[in-house]
Fold this protein.
Amino acid sequence: MDKTYDHKKTEDEIYKYWEGLGVFSPEKAQQVRKENGLETKNETFCTLMAPPNANAKLHCGHITYAIPDIFTRIKRMQGYKALYLPGTDHAGFETQVVYERKLKEKGKSRFDFDSETLFNQILEFVKENSETAIKQLKKLGISADWERQTFMLDEHVIETVYDTFEKMHKDGLIYRDTYMVNYSTFHGTTFSNLETTHKESTSPLYYVKYRIKDSEETITVATVRPETIYADVAVAVNPNDSRYEKLIGKIAINPLNNREMKIIADTYVDVEFGTGALKITPGHDFNDYEIGKKHNLPIITVINLEGKMTAGAPEVEGMFPNQARKEVAKILKEKGALEKTDETYKNNLLVDYKDKRPIEPLPLPNWFVKMDSLAEKAKEAIEKEEVKFHLPRWKKEISRWLNEIHDWPISRQIVFGIKMPIWYSTEKNPDLFVTFIDSEGVSHDGKIKELLKKYNFADIKKGLQKLIAPIDATYKVNRKCPGESYIQETDTFDTWFSSGQWPLTTLNYPNGKDFKTYFPTNLMDHMWDIIFFWDARMLMFSLYLTGKVPYKHSYIHGVVTDSKGQKMSKSKGNVIDPLEFVEKYGADALRMGLTVGGNTAAKQTALSEDKVRGYRNFANKIWNMARFIEMIKKDEGIHQNNEESNIELQQQDREMLEDLEGLVENVNENIKKYRLADAGNAIYEFMWHTLADSYIEKVKNRENKSEGLIILDQAYKTCLKLLHPFMPFTTEKIWQEIQGSEVPLIVEQWPEK
């Protein structure tokens, strides 16, 4: 053996060795075990990889992929047909944002291309970088069966998504409705409630007077959005507010356009906020939308999808809301309708999760899934513990969300995704609003009936960028164009609609051999932040389509922070590049640093360079232990075939065997309870202290070392087997050195009591 362990030389060499053996395949692993006389089981173990973005660089969160890898390696060594099933995500919105930034660098934007061309360009960009995530995961020692890899835009995935949508539509679970959505005028798409957040902001609070019809009396409302007064349809007060009791039922006059608006009573109104009177704008506020529905109020919008004021706000038409806000304040002041302005008012601004850009609540036609019946089945399965969570808090959290669930808007106004199989007849739907780009690169928009007077239908269809169908539009659900006059919906599926079917698409539901063999799977690991996005939806889809839960156990891990528990960010200068750590300390040290040195079960788990460095030292320690044992065995003439039954044990040998038995029992018990850190620490402490510091020293001091060396050799090899799932590279290399060409450690027999 070399004097020192060199992870830089070893890790690529060992990974190629495993790939050459083909043992990431469960079938091949069992074949190798059989050839070496080891037990194989009929039982299966399957865990699915949470699909990383195909073209994204590895970040610290990806180190957690070692968690399901540890369980897979254990099950493989126990003789199970063990499958770690990999795949990559198209990450529709995120990928399109990245590509649009690249276009911007070239002085271009998405508006320069028709939707099909843009989609193909982004797809080509993803394909060029598609091996990025996989190569980096291999660097971490992930033993997934890469031959079974699935990409979220593979043809069979798309077909399964279409099958599901068609079934849901047939079952009455899909509907189209005008709905108040979180719309980003910057990104040109909607966001679900889970994809938005709030940012504290200081905004002027305007106190605006509304005159009461046929009276000199006024009622004052407070608003941060005076530009939307053009779309006001009512003023609301609390029925228990004595200040306004006599005004309920009277008519207020809109100060900008003189629209007559009823003063209504609603308990939603907070008597403590502002003046206790609320302007009602159902077209631009979520709460007002609900009040509007309750009181049968009209819905008026004055901001378009490009984020500009419409002709419904004539004095500020074409302005962005921020510009219009200031201009409207001037107009109100000139009219004597602006009572005062509070310039220091603090409010929470609704923004998207990605770039923290403002969200504009807008009523838009959207495709929805009715969630009530799907959620009920999921709640029932969770209560019956058909799927178990390793911590009670996560069962409580997902149950709470399912109890509060709303219908799910599944359409997104982005290009890069799975296109919805919806088609509209231009003959039956002459009011379709269409945007297209012609052969000269000039963009045109308008109702299809008007555009067809000037342009060829084939050219419109070829250059199609965006389509918005009226809420009463007729349509057909079809994978291919159903007729000459038909044009396809430009919305794509929310990425979670396809990701939610991941356990099905990766296993080739419904007729694939893997689906029949491995479904339902055993373990799903992911971070807590997508428990609602993903966990809940996988449960609902699988129960709806198969009647079974998609996996039996859900392990929720925490966000990876720096050593001080701080979120990593470029501005703080505390971002850790995992590949730099792999280069510096080795993948095994990094795996141990997170899974053993941290606490992956917690909501946050700290990654400390000192701990990673310490586990690099541990790799060197166990390497030197192997060198010492092999050297002294050679000196004493001890060979591989010496057996414990042929020797006379001393008390310290019996104690060592008892301690070893206790270690094996301890590790297996912790693994069953998903306590990886406890299991890993037990192995670390035993090897460093019980073996190296104590027993080796005792054996060294014996006059007759033979018996002790045989026990030491047995204990050390048992420890290597236990440690292998945590530190696969180091242990496999040592195993090669001390066992020669015998059974690879990756498929060796796992120690059990």
